[in-house]
Design goal:
This protein is an alpha/beta fold. Helix content is 38%, strand content 25%. The chain has a single domain (7-93), classed as Rossmann fold, CATH 3.40.50. The mean pLDDT is 92.
C-alpha cells in the first residue's frame, strides 16, 4: 500500500513528516494511524534518523472531535490544529533536531 506525506522536513538527527487533513473522520484517522504504524520503523531504518509525524488538522469548517485528538495522543502522533498554528507549541513541533 502507498502512503503519501504532504511535507518532509529533515534535520541532522531527525526528520518530520507532515500529513494535512482538510477534514478528518473515523475512516481517515484510522487509515492514517494504521499507515503511520507501518511506515515509521521503515522510514527510521532507511533514514537512520528519529522520524516524527505531525498531523495538521483543519478546524475552520468545524471543530476537531476530542476523540480524534485522544486517538492521536494514544498513538503518540503530534498534531497541529490549524487555528492554533501560530502558537509557540505548534511552531516548536516544526523544528527538527
Amino acid at each position: 500500500m502507498e502512503f503519501m506525506f504532504n511535507f518532509q522536513i529533515a534535520g541532522r538527527e531527525s526528520e518530520l513528516v507532515l500529513k494535512s487533513f482538510n477534514t478528518i473522520n473515523k475512516q481517515t484517522l484510522s487509515s492514517f494511524l494504521f499507515s503511520w504504524d507501518d511506515i515509521k520503523p521503515v522510514r527510521e531504518k532507511v533514514s537512520k534518523k528519529n522520524v516524527t509525524e505531525i498531523a495538521v488538522l483543519n478546524d475552520e469548517a468545524k471543530p476537531i472531535k476530542g476523540e480524534y485528538l485522544e486517538a492521536l495522543n494514544a498513538k503518540k502522533v503530534n498534531y497541529i490544529i490549524w487555528g492554533d498554528r501560530f502558537s509557540e507549541d505548534s511552531t516548536n513541533k516544526l523544528k527538527p533536531a
